[in-house]
What we know:
Layout: E1 8-12, E2 16-20, E3 22-28, E4 32-37, E5 40-55, E6 60-73, H1 78-85
Amino acid sequence: MxxxxxxxxxxxxxxxxxxxxxxxxxxxxEQEILVICDCGELNIKGELLHVEELSLESGLLTVxxxxxxxxxxxxxxxxxxxxxxxxx
Length: 88
């Protein structure tokens, strides 16, 4: 039983981001978080990023830190994620 959850973003002072409609978190570190949503991959970049809350049941993700950019892309493979995260 899968309910389609609406996707939305709420950013407060570039320090706290709430995302709904999250299917999974592919990878994360203090500079980048890669989030899988129905509408594609959400790439969050910044400094001292921290996943405060992640509930895949409700599709909610909350991130804190200094957020410098948020962008979407098509879903990519795990090997290309590792290359991007580790400068390969």
